[in-house]
Amino acid sequence: MIHTVTLNPALDKTVEIPDFTLDAVNRITAMRTDPGGKGLNVSKVIAKLGGTSTAVGILGGSTGRRIADAMDALGIPCAFTFVEGETRTNLKVIDRTRHTNTDLNEPGLTVTPALLDEMLARLTADLRPGDIVVLSGSLPKGAPVDTYATWTAACQKAGARVFLDADGEPLAHGLAAKPYLVKPNNHELSRLTGHSLETAEALLDAARGLIAQGVERVVVSMGGDGALFVGRDTAYHAEGLNVPVGSTVGAGDSMVAALAYAAEQGLSDADTVALAVATSAANVMCSGSQAAERSAIDALLPQVCSHTL
Description:
This protein has 309 residues and is an alpha/beta fold. It has a domain at 3-36 and 52-109: putative 5-dehydro-2- deoxygluconokinase (putative 5-dehydro-2- deoxygluconokinase like fold), CATH 2.20.150.10. It is 38% helix and 24% strand. It has helices at residues 38-49, 61-73, 113-126, 147-157, 168-175, 186-193, 200-212, 251-265, 269-284, 294-300; strands at residues 2-6, 10-16, 30-36, 53-60, 78-83, 88-95, 100-104, 132-136, 161-165, 181-182, 217-221, 227-230, 235-238, 306-308. Strand 6 and strand 7 form a beta hairpin. The longest helix is centred in the C-terminal third of the chain and has 16 residues, at 269-284.
């Protein structure tokens, strides 16, 4: 069973504005809203792949209820905790004329360590050996910076494999608990190491450094340059696919979803790499943070080109 955890969800409002200009009146030509937050995006993609996951998260107010209703309409099992306050709304501005994607993210709800401890206790009580727990996204206000380390240690003690997708201090602290898999992008890995990693070789060295620290697998997404898939004894570079861009929101989350689904299904390394790249590319072709259909993913699979390093 796959469990996704989103401690700071959002309602994603995606708008299209041609020639988006600062300090001027801008007119929206298209708009959509989707339940968002990295873990929720992962659950949406897993469902399209044909898998099942339970989405764990914290919601508040009418916006939180809209997210819960939307996830229910998608047929995705959820275990939400409702608190006082209002779940954030994040604005995504797509300018197809200038080829830019701009995110304006609200800070979100405030939580307490006691609430997080209660949620963690409920999650670990439901875990079974072999389960996968995806911890992803930013932490809400009030959450200790080592939250992901605490959750990783507890989930792995219960027999689950933890996939961590975070940035900054939450990622750095989470690594101390040695999650099974981490998926930074090239910018996140650069920030983690404190160095600008400009080449695939430099990123590969940094990924192998994480392996040496106890992480089993590291996947580094590099946008149009593809991705690196690094294990203890293996390393692959998959080239990026040239597809029309609808929105880059959730591209990394889609890759995490494919990785979790592939691990649960026991796919080979080669099949995992192909599925992860095709799933990410298919979701880039979509508008907003909606999940691509499995048919679109399957159509891209033959185009994925990878080689060992």
